[in-house]
From TrEMBL:
Domain Beta-ketoacyl-[acyl-carrier-protein] synthase III N-terminal: 106-185
Enzyme Commission number(s) from the entry: 2.3.1.180
Whole sequence portion shown: 89 to 423 of 424
Organism: Physcomitrium patens (Spreading-leaved earth moss)
Annotated GO biological process: fatty acid elongation
Keyword Transferase: yes
Protein name: beta-ketoacyl-[acyl-carrier-protein] synthase III
Length: 335
């Protein structure tokens, strides 16, 4: 058997909380506006003694403890993030600090869809053979890339990390029951953090007497978003992939115990669950406390729901991520 099972979850958030109240002291907004339009009340932001790596180590350690698996038993660590501590990737640092010295570790970048893509990738590694314990970590720190003077975006995001442990099973059954993954670069203009144009630079030099300028050190623009377009995309595209993934799993909306969407905005969660005819009692939402934590939002919410006893062994959880790229996708899993 080469089935892949979900056996552990963990999560970690920064200590520092920024409430809507506090935000309204430095941008022209209000608790009322933010709560009404998004459902968000608080978000966490990385402090000086914290990093994406340290949060991810904490989240991963909790997942390993839940599953009673030792760090050295981990074969693969996928860090799904768009905001690593190092441009070359942070997964090997997480691996080192966790003590997973037998694991291959690398980053996977797909914005808010990263975790769903990571889950499917991990399952494929286990199915392919040779990988028994795989940590899938979703982590982001968009606080580093938002313009804290832009009320249209800075109110939405928070930092966090969440981890799931997948394990090779003795039988052939997967926890991943079905999936549907998509991307479309045409929508890139609606949501991006692009490298700034770099013109004349301190280390620029003329080559061969020509006017060619060597590139300077790159910096990134702040996160740019057309909120209305992203909203429309999400409510149109997400129900389609959830239905696609359910169909692949041989299930319908009636079989779903929990709908766990990327935690972007409560109005998106409401609209998608409406379109899927899934009642609000089955919709997992913790965005009031953390805002949009990008690739971390699904494992963070799942971990909380598992630890609080809401999600129980055997429950079918329909997850869906969506965001920049554009990328979007759904994975149906059995906890
Ligand atoms: N406080 C007060 N007023 C505000 C704020 C704010 N924080 N932000 C915008 N406004 C104002 C606008 O200036 C505008 O004023 P005007 O009518 O005088 O021009 C008015 O409120 C309405 O603004 P809209 O942008 O039209 O508001 P909308 O209802 O679309 O809500 C929001 C904006 C919350 C951003 C919404 O569009 C949304 O949630 N979109 C989805 C965004 C999302 O989920 N992005 C993440 C995707 S995941 C990823 O990959 C990162």
């Amino acid at each position: 058997g080469r089935g892949s099972r979900l056996v552990g979850s963990g999560s970690a958030v920064p200590k520092h909380v920024i409430s809507n109240e506090e935000l309204s002291k430095f941008v022209d907004t209000s608790d009322e506006w933010i709560s009404l339009r998004t459902g968000i009340r608080n978000r966490r932001v990385l402090g000086e003694d914290e990093s994406l790596t340290t949060l991810s180590v904490d989240a991963s350690r909790k997942a390993l403890e839940m599953a009673n698996v030792k760090p050295e038993e981990v074969d693969l660590l996928l860090l799904c993030t768009s905001t690593p501590d190092d441009l070359f990737g942070s997964a090997p640092q997480v691996q080192k600090l966790l003590g997973c010295h037998n694991a291959l570790a690398f980053d996977l970048t797909a914005a808010c869809s990263g975790f769903v893509l990571g889950l499917v990738t991990a399952t494929r590694f286990i199915r392919g053979g040779g990988y028994k314990n795989v940590l899938v970590v979703g982590a982001d720190a968009l606080s580093r890339y938002v313009d804290w003077t832009d009320r249209g975006t800075c109110i939405l995001f928070g930092d966090a990390s969440g981890a799931l442990l997948l394990q090779a099973a003795t039988d052939d059954q997967d926890s991943l029951l079905g999936f549907d993954l998509r991307s479309d670069g045409n929508g890139h203009k609606h949501l991006h953090v692009t490298v700034d144009d770099v013109d004349s630079s301190p280390n620029g030099a003329e080559t061969n007497g020509s006017t060619f300028k060597l590139p300077g050190k790159a910096t990134y623009e702040c996160l740019q978003m057309n909120g209305k377009e992203v909203f429309k995309f999400a409510v149109r595209a997400v129900p389609q992939v959830v239905e696609g993934a359910l169909q692949e799993a041989g299930l319908t909306g009636d079989n779903v115990d929990w709908l766990l969407l990327h935690q972007a905005n409560q109005r998106i969660l409401d609209s998608v669950s409406d379109r899927l005819h899934i009642p609000s009692e089955k919709v997992i939402s913790n965005l009031a406390n953390y805002g949009n934590t990008s690739a971390a939002s699904i494992p963070l919410a799942l971990d909380e729901a598992v630890r609080s006893g809401k999600v129980k062994a055997g429950d079918v959880v329909a997850t869906a991520g969506f965001g920049a790229g554009l990328t979007w996708g759904s994975a149906i899993v059995r906890w």
